[in-house]
Design brief:
The chain has helices spanning 3-31, 38-45, 49-55, 59-83, 88-106, 110-113, 120-137, 147-158, 167-181. The N and C termini lie far apart (74 Å). The chain has 2 domains: 1-57, Homeodomain-like (Arc Repressor Mutant, subunit A, Orthogonal Bundle), CATH 1.10.10; 67-183, Tetracycline Repressor, domain 2, CATH 1.10.357. It has 188 residues and is mainly alpha-helical.
Length: 188
């Protein structure tokens, strides 16, 4: 098949997939998760049920795909911060703030209910572990604990952002987390 034909088909598939994800989230938001069925999604998207099943086997798979799409978007943003260069301490602060704000904004969404399914938590830990190791190598944070443990600490501490009542509270939580990453004071 000609390259243009393949690109057109792939663009169409991507557009249909995005429409399925967007429509499902709109239906869940408007009517609640339990009222969303594959038939209803197909009807709202304007495709047949058989076509919908070619993309996803059930509503849960659609929710997981939407979660993956959001995580991918977040990781793109985080990678942009990381690849922007500059002070590792400032990069770490920005990354933690972005993550905490996402936790705060999406804590009561349907996406939050599938947040820890799949491999997204592992991707977040690996990304953060790498950033923490760079910050430790630069002498910005403590080195008495492995970056792997520090990454778990950060993600668990920032999960409290789901209960933060304001963006100011999220920022204070991020600052508290950063304080925990600081080098310990030398003993006396």
């Amino acid at each position: 098949m000609p390259k243009l034909w393949n690109e057109t088909i792939e663009a169409h598939r991507t557009a249909v997939r995005d429409a399925i994800l967007d429509t499902t989230m709109a239906l869940v938001s408007e009517h609640g998760l339990l009222s969303v069925t594959m038939s209803r999604i197909a009807k709202e998207v304007g495709i047949g049920r058989a076509t919908l099943y070619k993309y996803f086997p059930d509503v849960e798979a659609i929710l997981l795909a939407e979660h993956d799409r959001r995580v991918a978007s977040q990781l793109e943003h985080l990678h942009a911060v990381k690849s922007g260069g500059g002070d590792p301490g400032r990069q770490l602060e920005q990354v933690l703030l972005i993550h905490a704000m996402m936790v705060n904004e999406h804590h009561d969404s349907v996406i939050a209910s599938v947040m820890h399914q799949g491999g997204s938590r592992g991707h977040q830990e690996a990304f953060l572990q790498d950033l923490l190791q760079q910050a430790a190598d630069a002498g910005v944070i403590r080195t008495d604990m492995p970056a792997e443990e520090l990454a778990k600490f950060c993600l668990n501490a920032l999960s409290a952002a789901s209960q933060a009542p304001s963006h100011a509270a999220v920022k204070r939580l991020v600052q508290l987390t950063l304080d925990g990453l600081r080098k310990p004071e030398p003993a006396g």
